Amino acid sequence: MSTRAYSLAYLSSHRCTPAEAMQVAAATGYSFVGLRLWPNAPGAPQQVLLGQAPVLQETLAVQRDTGVGVFDLEIIRIGEQFDPHTWDALYDAGAALKARAILVAGDDTDEARLSDNYARLCEVMQPFGLTADLEFMPWTAVKDAKSALRIVQKAGLPSNAGILVDALHFGRSTTTLDDLRAIPRTLLHYAQICDAEAGLHFSTEQMIHTARCERSLPGEGTVDLRGLFDVLPPDLPISVEVVNFPRENTCTPKQWAQTCLSASRPFTD
Q: Which domain holds residue 15?
């Protein structure tokens, strides 16, 4: 029997409202969902909930009915100009939904300032019971696992600090399995699975397109998923994050969620 908990990531269920995502998760074998309540860029896609009391109430009702939890919320980006209170509404929603984590991206190339601001973010999020999981992405200022660990360490290793490993970014960055082994277990709260062509030859535009529009199902690409999930803790929760616009057009959100989970299990169970 699997010891894993699986979460239906926002990018795997982006066609759904938060309540619909929970219903899909419950019907297809996931214990959690991930929700993008804050867009990753101004005007970019998101799920509407913040400031919408009826939507929050509906989501909480479905959560009670299904037992599906909220694992992570997206997204906070730490740029040169940073005020952790910009996202106060997101923290409030996280507390109401009993979310565990918020996904954080680092965009500031001044690493000392980025580390300081990450520490400030962790401090502000602490009372809400949320971890701040810094995701390395090769086109951001936090390009690989070594960078993420260095920033978290420079921030003083806050008690709610975290590092998020996405299989896609592992496969398209200089991150090695030894780099992942060097991450303390206390900093690992969940990992994301998908697949793609691995390598370091992609342009920023190509990397972003794959990440946001056209990932592959686990087993279809060349990312070393077996190596990755052998190195990561065997009980680490898995966020199934497979967005593929062309293929999703041929099936329902429920069918896609089931397909993604079925493809993931051989690498994580």
A: 6-71+84-100+165-268
